[in-house]
Amino acid sequence: MGLRLACLALAAGWAVAFESPAPRLLWAGPEVTLLGGPSRDGRYLSYVDPATRNLAIRETGSGRSRMVTRKAPASEEFAYFSAMSPDSRRVAYAWFNEQGFYDLRVIDVDGSSPRILYRNEEAGFVQPCAWSPDSKFILTLLFRTDNISQIVLVPAEGGPPKILRSLNWVYPKRMDISPDGRFIVYDSFADEASGDRTIYLLSVDGASERRLVSLPGSHLFPLWMPDGKRIVYASERAGTMDAWELEIEDGEPRGAPRLVRRDLGRFLPLGITAAGELVFGLRSGEVDVFVTTLETPARHAHRVTQRFPGRNTAPAWSPDGQAIAYLSRRGSENFGQESRAIVIRRLDSDDERELLPKLAHLERVRWSPDGKSLLVSGSDNQGRGGLYLVDSGTAAVRALVSEAGASFRGFEGVFSSDGRSVFYLHRDAGLRRRELTTGKEATLYPDKRFRHLVVSPDGKLLAAGLENTGIALLPTAGGEPRIIPFRGLTELEWGRELVAARGTELWRIPLDGAPPAKLESPGNRAAGLSLHPDGRRIALTAGNVKSEIWALPLR
Amino acid sequence: MKFWALLLPVALAGADKLVIPAGLDAYLPVPDGNPITREKVELGKKLFFDTRLSRDHSVSCATCHVPKLAFTDDRPLSVGVAGRLGNRRVPRIINRGYGKSFFWDGRAATLEEQVLEPVQNPKEMDMTLEEAAARTGLSIQAIQQALASYVRTILSGDSPYDRYLLGDLNALTEPQRAGLRLFRGRAGCTACHLGPNLTDERFHNTGIGAPGEEGRMAATGRAHDRGAFKTPSLREAARTPPYMHDGSLESLEEVIEFYDRGGRPNAALDAEIRELKLTAVEKAAIVRFLGALSGTVRDGM
Q1: What pTM does this model have?
Q2: Which of A32, A314, B103, B298 has the most CB atoms in a 10 Å sphere around its CB?
Q3: Is B39 a catalytic residue?
Q4: Which domains, from first to last, does chain B contain?
Q5: Are A164 and B12 a contacting pair at CB < 8 A?
């Protein structure tokens, strides 16, 4: 049993006696992913096989698994969210296609009869959440390129989706349809200014919608009980992530929410079986920011801070090497004002200062050469992804590039060595340069496949990963790129030398034509790497997050 | 893929159903105090066309909000009783049931609040509510609720763009698709024109209008709202010139040129408005895409 669950009885004391029975572990191991859910009879779990990224089915009793989709090994396509039909014979799933967006597909569990139910680049992210009780519709979340999320019913035999409700860019984390097929529950922000989620009930015929939970705190991941008389959801109202339930009668809440089980940890409800078991995913372990040396990263690593352990990522050394900036998550949300802070830690004094820029998502930061501002990839409070300048003293935000169609992660960007312009990767326009004072822009290299952009210390070269090929060296003044073969690139950093990451591995990339040289592995490294100006120290994000699947009997 | 069931019937009070055109939400927000009923909608429609609601019996709501013109007219500024000229372009009142505020400056928070203002506006119908009630033999509340209910049923959808989004990839021509890519990409139109109704329901200063015009500031009192006006829906726009809150641009081509230049510079110009440097081909593609936003306009039950 996971640490949090093991501590449950001790922490909760007598209250446990009145809660649901203890959860039982269904599945643990490196192959566990939390992108599917249980069948109604509880005999199967749909999931994504992490090795092949195929849709797979696991028999919960025997532990046997089998692939449902069969993608070509070299293909960039993969399966994502899935939901099993009520009779356990079909699976609806999201499929990242060869064109770079997600289809909604359905397939028989034996791998036969795959078909596309919805495919449209304008709604390029789809998440099947549940089937209607009569198996005629799949309750699906569409996320459109204009940053609108939509709750839709997609006919399981094909046909246009029925749009039930359009929401803003903060899409529901979970939706479910009632056993009588009349109501949908979903979570969304309590109001536009709030970072807290709450639960809403929407009638399938469109006639009504109402907020079900009006208590403070965040309430999310709602699911219907098989009897249709209650919903179960996760709540942070007591400071821990607990399971709660609320009685519903004819679309109306009855009474106050009741605690089902306290402190389940970072749990993710996946489904409720006909027998009344809540099947949920549990994430354990953590990642954090560490400082170590490039030559012996595993031996000399220490946490950069003791504050908010497990919530810190994306370090960046200041140009003078005296400070380090990193992102620190607050609360459970990945989005919303103040969901992440930029922390600037002085290495000489260990003082820490927090910046809370008015942005909804922060993905990564890069210092300006003069240290006065930070270049932030992320999105604003209307969900528009882009690049933003954040004053390192006041946290004031200035949008450099901000587009509704861009990913919430924003664009990757770096300062030029003189700090007068930024280079960035635009999804539709390739590698661009933007002058900071005039706002003038120009495309340097129109190739849209570049990833992981960095600039050389002398400012004469840019480097970027070129999809499955290698590392492109690109003169900032323009000219022919030079390609250094390197497959599987996951990150680049350019300090005194060019360093590449391939998953957890670190590699030194010589510019003189010599082959890349593997460095000592720092262990469980995650994305987020910065080289100190001394060329010796590095800051990196490292750790290990495990996923498990549990079942909690509900009374 | 077969395109049956593109019209979505939505259950209302009693046994009535309101038909929602494809592309719009099945959920149409309706205040608890004014549920939509067939009786109210039918009464509201009669009132909408009733000239008794104007001082000299010369205009009704439908005089300016002409059904065949997507519930607007073709003049730059509204014209009310005795030929009195209004201050602003008559807005298309399609899909306003999904709206969050009403009038170009958003001064009305609900449709119920909105529908009574033109009746009382001296430049429009120039009546008191008491006079309107006496002439129609209805209570003020009955007039208000019926008009608001009817306006909620004025819906535009089922356009080629809607069909495209719903999965009919042949619903848009290639130039229209190119226009769509620009619309949500480099031209940045979706910064304001987004969602099923192609509006963010917010207020922006594009520089259009007379210098110093208050715009949203008239409703909020906030100086930084000066010159900001509500983003209109783009549905049915292609067939309903002229454009902007003052009707000053005669064609979609002029509108695109205006935004391509970066709007009209002023101290409060919205951050979203900037020079675009679109080519002539790109501008034409956006205009073609805007033509794909015209579909079926329905009203009543």
Answers
A1: 0.86
A2: A314
A3: no
A4: 2-156 (1.10.760.10), 159-295 (1.10.760.10)
A5: no
